[in-house]
Amino acid sequence: MSEFDQMYREVILDHYKNPRGHGLLENADAQADGQNPLCGDEVSIFVAFGEDGDTIDEVKFSGRGCAISQAATSMLMELVKGRSATEVATLPRDELLDEIGIPLTPVRLKCALLGLSTLKLALHKAKGTPLPDEWAGMADELDLK
Amino acid sequence: MGGVAVTTQAKLDAPRLRADFPIFEQQIHGKPLAYLDSAVSTHKPRQVLDKLRTFYETSYANVHRGVYTLSERATAEYEGAREKLARFINAPAAREVVFVRGATEGLNLVAYAWGLVNLGPGDLVVVTELEHHSNFVPWQYIAKRTGAELRMIPLDDSGELDLGELDAIPREGNVKVVANNLVSNALGTINPIEKLSAWAHAQGAIMVVDGAQAAPHRAIDVQALGCDFFAFSAHKMCGPTSVGALWGRRELLQSMEPFNLGGHMIRKVTFEETTWGEVPAKFEAGTQPIAEAVGFGAAVDYLNDVGIDAIEQHEHELAAYSLGKMAEIPGITLYGPPADRRAGIVSFNLDEIHPHDVAQILDMEGVAIRAGHHCCQPLMAKLGVAATNRASFYLYTIPEEIDRLVEGLHKVRKVLG
């Protein structure tokens, strides 16, 4: 497979063109915004918990981004729905990267992980779960209201 | 031959000049490199690379320090480069040219060394919606620190400054600084600096020009521009990274506080106090990028040999050619003014396709363009987009590269459209 066909393989294009969980969630229990300063992309993540207060019942995202970030965030929505927030807060990034399944340069890695970082930030704000590495030590600077 | 007093500038021969640039001897993803990102940084010709090597091998020492032969030789080369730069921008004197790390540092120097002392509550700093962050963020920051306020000159729909409401600004405060780029890095717009300089001076303000995108592409005459400061970077004009120059009016430079403090910039240091050296030494603390400055001089020699007017002409032709070709692509949005009022820069978006994807697919075709906000986030907000694609040209750009860009864009639409 050529480099090109790998990067824009069918499953990526499918998630890009038909993103799962794209939209807003009214009265979300957890919410956060993330930015990629490289390209100015922004993503917002919304989470609603189940009755146990921990299961991710609903999760949605909004914002615009490149095919890699849109597809990765779309896959993320499918990956975490129905799982516990505590577990997702420490979800190894490789679990998402395996799902994406294409080689990513360090620059594109940021695109692919923007959604996951923002989701973890949302969970941190709502439940005090650990911050992802990217945000660690920045709690004071982040707008955590 | 002979007997002709005036010769017209020969048209530049881009395919021949291309041979001066070793970078083009390689392939990217199995294809010849089409480098359409010269606005972010240009490649370096052998003449500049050779100069750096020769200087290090034969003439290198620290400057303005030793009395030995090598130091004298290095100092002569370093100061010789300053003189070349002064001639290149028609500065009244070489000592008004300060070596800095790049245009960004030059603009920060003015914002800190002039702005911190001269700005205060009730004062206005006027910038434009077209600025690169380097001529925007320092002013926003220094204005906040001093209690001054920022005012924006707006853009019109063609990406040019709208000066219609200019005279309303002084009613809101004392205009102390007007800051603008001569050429916009994001849209290629050529701005009316002469007019703004005259207006700034009528308000009693200083005129600060970001020349980073202009100096590589057109003849610069700081006296004709009428500005007070002009900053530019070597790396955007065939020179090394990490060196640039700030020209300033002598009386302003002399009256200003220093920016960086340390060695070389002093007249006398005691345990109690320090007095500053003469301009430009006052602004050149520490060991300077010596070889890079010498390389900057070699880059200016190279551009002079090619002919700066020929470069400008070449870029206008490429801008017109690319705008014509690209306008035919379905779903394309082109930003910025008509070809005759812009430098060799074309910013665009393709349908709703994210610029990163456009640039990624083009890269696989060996075509390098910029995708992003171009350090102009306020401008992107004004255009209502997060980012654009940008193709930019220089003296080594050939029309075939633009043809490959256009072909690549058709492929992008096929995959992601």
Secondary-structure blueprint of this entry?
The complex is a heterodimer of chains A (145) and B (417).
Chain A: H1 3-7, H2 10-17, E1 30-36, E2 41-49, E3 56-62, H3 67-80, H4 85-89, H5 93-100, H6 106-127
Antiparallel strand pairs in A: 1-2, 2-3
Helix pairs in contact in A: 2-3, 3-5, 3-6
Chain B: H1 14-18, E1 27-28, E2 31-32, E3 34-35, H2 46-58, H3 69-88, E4 97-100, H4 103-118, E5 123-128, H5 137-146, E6 149-153, E7 174-181, H6 193-202, E8 206-210, H7 222-225, E9 229-233, E10 244-248, H8 250-255, E11 266-269, E12 274-276, H9 290-306, H10 308-326, E13 332-335, E14 345-350, H11 355-364, E15 367-368, E16 370-372, H12 377-383, E17 388-392, H13 399-416
Parallel strand pairs in B: 3-15, 5-6, 5-7, 7-8, 8-9
Antiparallel strand pairs in B: 1-2, 4-10, 9-10, 11-12, 13-14, 14-17, 16-17
Helix pairs in contact in B: 2-9, 3-9, 4-5, 10-13, 11-13
What this model shows, in words?
The complex is a heterodimer of chains A (145) and B (417). Chain A is an alpha+beta fold and 145 residues long. Chain A is built from six helices and three strands, in the order ααβββαααα. Chain A has a three-stranded antiparallel β-sheet with strand order 1-2-3, covered by helices on one side. In chain A, strand 1 and strand 2 (41-49) form a beta hairpin. In chain A, helix 3 (67-80) packs across helix 5 (93-100) and helix 3 (67-80) packs parallel to helix 6. The model of chain A has no long low-confidence stretch (mean pLDDT 87). Chain B folds into two domains: 14-37 and 307-416, Aspartate Aminotransferase, domain 1 (Alpha-Beta Complex), CATH 3.90.1150.10; 50-304, Type I PLP-dependent aspartate aminotransferase-like (Major domain) (Aspartate Aminotransferase, domain 2, 3-Layer(aba) Sandwich). Helices cover 37% and strands 17% of the residues of chain B. At the A-B interface, helix 1 and helix 3 of A face helix 11 of B.
